[in-house]
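Field notebook, page 210. I keep forgetting to write these up properly, so this time I am using the form the group agreed on. The chain and the ligand, magnesium ion, are recorded exactly as supplied. Prediction of the bound pose follows.
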Amino acid sequence: LTVRYRAGLPPALKGVSFQVKSGQRVGICGRTGSGKSSLVQALFRILEAEEGTIQIGGVDISKLGLHKLRQSMSVIPQSPVLFSGTSIRFNLDPFSIHDDETIREALADAQILDAVDELPDGIHSMVAEAGSNFSVGQEQLLCLARAILRKSKILILDESGANIDHQTDALLQQAVSRSFEDATILSVAHRLGSIIDHDLVLVLGDGKVL
Ligand code: ATP
Ligand code: MG
């Protein structure tokens, strides 16, 4: 797989090739700028392949509709996006598919329920501009709760590294292990400790698999 952000820029991934079996947990590491987040973006076709393909279950994802592709996987991005001016509940379940109790369970599984309950309106509290009532680590836990609700079979985690403290990191990893036991997990990690128990470790360097 080769991807490039813009014509004229060097490729961010250069002929990357690897296979993951269903249900495996893969830790992805590598220095800053090595292409970890670019790989995450390529999986969701935010970056389109310039050469090569990504296949999931034998299906070339460039042949799938974007809606179908993005519905089939969950991501906890490095810079999580919460929608301000809407409630926490809305951020987790925009189509009101789940009841409040299910949402609270997902928040509890993601280890973020206590922090939400401390807000004046609990799960109905508004998310402030740019998610400013939460830290980046907490925003990632909220994204995890969203992923837990969706019960995706593929989970992509782009750990925010410097933004996340040891304790939140450990919480995130434990919550992921518990809630996604049978899922295929690709987990970008900045600490070896968080991926040491994974099935595979993928080391990227300068856009290539090392
Ligand atoms: P980090 O550990 O800091 O998150 P990373 O491994 O996720 O790093 P990427 O974000 O994938 O690294 O970056 C890979 C390469 O692509 C770098 O050379 C980077 O400068 C470039 N790049 C990343 N985002 C963009 C962008 N939006 N536009 C242009 N180039 C980009
Ligand atoms: Mg990154």
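OBSERVATIONS:
- The chain has a mean pLDDT of 91.
- The pocket of adenosine-5'-triphosphate (ligand 1) is lined by residues 5, 9, 12, 30, 32-38, 78 (CB under 6 Å).
FOLLOW-UP: compare against the apo run.
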